[in-house]
Amino acid sequence: MSDDMMIGTRIQEVHAAIEAARTRRTHVPAEAPVELIAVTKNHPVEAMQAAIDAGIMNIGENRVQEALDKAQTLEREVKWHLIGHLQRNKVKHAVRQFDLIHSVDSVRLAQEIDKAAEKFGKVQNILVQVNLAREESKSGVYREELDDVLAEIEVLRAIRLQGFMCIAPNYDDVEECRPLFRAMYELFRQVKEREPRTADIRYLSMGMTHDYEIAVEEGANLVRVGTAIFGVRQYALGV
């Protein structure tokens, strides 16, 4: 089987797993759709093209420069998602390239994105990254800070809050992710019910290759899957 065919087969398998996970939902409507983001960090443009040709519409990148380099030769229409930590000195490039920035983790970063988007004449869609597990090694807003962060974001004119991203700890037993994902969905639901004036709350981005099925069961509607589609990352790419 060619690499392109293998990527296509893996995408079908991930979609099937997502659909099966939706049927196992207990407190989230089973019919609520889920979008798959193919995470292409350290994978070549050829693999990205194969994935898009197999039906992928959303590409996730961790690094701004890697996305900019790949976009020059990708030759495909796609929605770009920034899922990695965003440094403030990369903001203007991120705003130029990405349709949705998942990893907004401070008011200061939101303000920088707002300034850059205003200069580009763009309204930048964002998610706020929530560090619900309070892991020191991960970025994100703590729960007790979130209301104040959302109030500060609400007054910004060139960004639009569309929801939240959460990254679960890498537990040995993936079932340990479930309470965290469930709590994150409840937080998402509460904010959506009192939707801030300038927001359009629609996305809950959580779940990666090792835990996306549980994330879908617990309410994720964006999942970020790389290894299950492309295999192990090729760290020697040098992009």
Can you characterise this structure?
This protein has 239 residues and is of the alpha/beta class. The protein is built from nine helices and eight strands. The chain has an eight-stranded parallel beta sheet. Strand 6, helix 7 and strand 7 form a beta-alpha-beta unit.
Brief summary:
This protein has 239 residues and is of the alpha/beta class. It is built from 9 helices and 8 strands.
Q: Key features?
A:
single chain; 239 residues; alpha/beta; 8-stranded parallel β-sheet; 41% helix; 17% strand
Task: Record the SSE blueprint.
Elements: H1 3-23, E1 35-39, H2 45-53, E2 58-61, H3 64-71, E3 79-82, H4 91-97, E4 100-104, H5 107-120, E5 124-129, H6 143-154, E6 159-166, H7 178-193, E7 203-206, H8 212-217, E8 222-225, H9 227-230
Parallel strand pairs: 1-2, 1-8, 2-3, 3-4, 4-5, 5-6, 6-7
